[in-house]
Specification:
By secondary structure, this protein is α+β, with helices and mostly antiparallel strands. Helices cover 15% and strands 23% of the residues. Strands 3-1-14-9-10 form a five-stranded mixed β-sheet, with no helix packed on it. A five-stranded antiparallel β-sheet has the order 2-4-7-8-13, with no helix packed on it. About 33% of the residues have low confidence.
Amino acid sequence: MDLHFFSSLVFIVLLVNPKGVYGASFTFVNRCEYTVWPGILANAGSPRLDSTGFELPKDSSRSFQAPTGWSGRFWGRTGCKFDGSGSGTCLTGDCGSGQVECNGLGAAPPVTLAEFTLGTGGQDFYDVSLVDGYNMPMIVEGSGGSGLCASTGCTTDLNRKCPSELRVGDGDACRSACEAFGSPKYCCSGAYSTPATCKPSVYSEMFKAACPRSYSYAYDDATSTFTCTGADYTVTFCPSSPSQKSTPAVTETTPTIPMTGSSSTPQGSGSESGLTYSDNSYGYSGSVYTSSGYGYPDSGSDSGSGSSSEPGGSGQTMLTDGSWLAGLAMGNSATTAPCILLYVLIALFLMFSWHQFYL
């Protein structure tokens, strides 16, 4: 083996994985009429990003790089008050750290969540979940990737539409029915822990009507999990400017989508203020939202990290807080294709060096 052959191998690796060990960049944009404090929680086995929580003033942005195989969640904290030393709390989405940095702690519900798993040589999976309730408008957009790469999220101000029994404070956030009532029927737990027994409630249907592409209850995955390959992502808070908190209520638009079979990519068709999309694989009919076996439900409160296997699942992984993250069926994020290729290159380099030394 000569140096030319070794160089060719390096070129092939870069060709197969041009982004190297970096999976995607995440850019956070604040279009709200107020400051937002984003929180970041990496799942067990994923490294922390450059920050776990930071201040994002109005009309500002900040970007982070994430490695291939990274999985975790983002959310926005509102009404935060921090002193000169960085100590304080937030009115919504507080992570309980008492600091600007969340330091490995998750968001207290109700909160709007964006969840990601960056593919280990394959597709990225992402979603915006209202299963833990809602505190602010948020959308996710992919750029530079291949595939459908549809935008997802919720542009509607659900705080203005929230029923009194779910409302928090003076309309600061809107709780999920699970958090408000604690019933297994609403939490998809106990006798209601399967797609066959856990059905959408009047409350989840209200969320779904306002935000058709967001998770509205635990088994809403067929209409709410999105995929893209090799993209960078932008997470925008209050995507409509000025903030919808200061504008008239948005008219609800519920998509009418024919049931024409299932698709391995759960994008759908319909419309929402500021968002357009097409494809007919939602699996929605009337008031019933059917799961098509994608198996990435997201439910429960966001109180920590870690994972455990779900009996009866097919590669599905559930966090210890009871929630699910789209795409974990892709495999163990700790072992990625770039790492394997790197090990092969190191071995070949050592073999080449040994050969040259003993010639």
